[in-house]
Amino acid sequence: MESSDSPLSQLDSLFNPRSIAVIGASDKTGRIGFVVVNSLVQGGFSGLIFPVNPRLTRLLDMPAFPSIEVIPDEVDLAIIVLRKELVLKAMDECGRKGVRAVIVMSSGFSELGEGKAEEELVTKARHYGMRFLGPNCAGYAAPWESVYASFENRVQQGNLGFISQSGAMCAVFLALARAEGLGLSMFVSYGNAADIGPDELLKYLNKHEPSHLIACYLEGLIVRQARQFLLAARLVTPHKPILVLKPGNTRAGARAIASHTGTLAGEQAIYSGAFRQVGILQANTLYEFIDACKTLTALPLPTGDRVAIMTNSGGPGVLTVDACAHVGLTVPQFDSTFMQHLKKVLPPSCSVDNPVDVGPEGNEGTYQHIVQLLLANKNIDIVLVVCVPPAFSDIRAITKAVIAAKRTCTSKPLVTCWMAGDIVAESLPLLEKASIPNFPTPQRAATALSFLVQRARWLNSQP
Predict the structure, then answer these.
(1) Which of 58, 75, 150, 162 is the 20 to 30 Å CA partner of 292?
(2) Which domain does 342 fall in, by range?
(3) What's phi and psi for 34, nearest 5 deg?
(4) pLDDT digit string, tens, across residues 82-93
């Protein structure tokens, strides 16, 4: 249990507030000051919301206040949405009011070379005993707690905690997460991290029960932050996986990062080596990042890297074998006894080696039987089902058959690769509901599975 004065307990006022003031609230629907207040209301925040703007008397049927200091109730969290020149005065007012936590969404600080102004924010916060997120951030959303303290609120509830140095990448990630059926436990945009940095966020999400995976978009860290981040990760990774997407592995990308967040990208090889040492998983592309999130949040860890592939066509089967080999997964030959089992249920024209090819006429009964046999095979760790449905097949029936087969064995990872775009679209919600990740290409499926294997290997290597 954290003491009331520990750094993690101090973040409770930020992430579990009973009351929130929005300084810079607006009645103009296109302004961030309006969107933030509306997000809190629409998100179902159960505490008190105080819009602060000297021009307003009411906003969204709530009384508005000219200053945070005249609010008659206590304020746990203040969100500052003002021009940079007004932020320091607002921080003073928050301190005098006794606010414990602040989100500074305003930009124009160290990301533009204004380091001194940012240092003044830190000094003010320390003077009043406040903690703050930002500046230059998009805030956060905590769906399980119904707190949407952000202008990005398009998120469904789940078990993925996401922290991002970039506010815009929060928007991108949330859009992709919705498209892929990924639910979030929390997202946090920390911006310039003048006070609360990614290391403290890692520790907080480690204690946050709904968060089963912590995913980070990380552009760069100063030396002190890097050391703290790695120390925090070392504490977290034995309990929860951490997945990082870190751009800046080119000279041009590193230059862009310096102008965006005011941090140094650093040598990619140094980061990658340090990440591996503490058990951090690293994605190379945005889709790789999303796909890894899908497997790491939905599937059990495998006991090995042996993949059984089931397909209804030889070409996609070969592509899948190559894809698995490229990411270090093994596609073993089946033993003769198991192949005899397969021959009993498949036509003579079908291949019973690995991949198992059930042919274009394979129906739902065939899929269910073969998937059950593969899941039950003690020499197989992972099952990957590939399907390119011909016009006469019933993809919904095949999907339901795979789901039924999965219920017979929940201890092995099972993913699908339905490779026909809009033809398979109607079946995808069924897979999502059954926690079976689906991927549009064998390459994406194999890469996503490789993260499960990496995670299992790292845990097994620990004393």
Answers:
(1) 150
(2) 307-453
(3) -80, -45
(4) 999 999 999 999
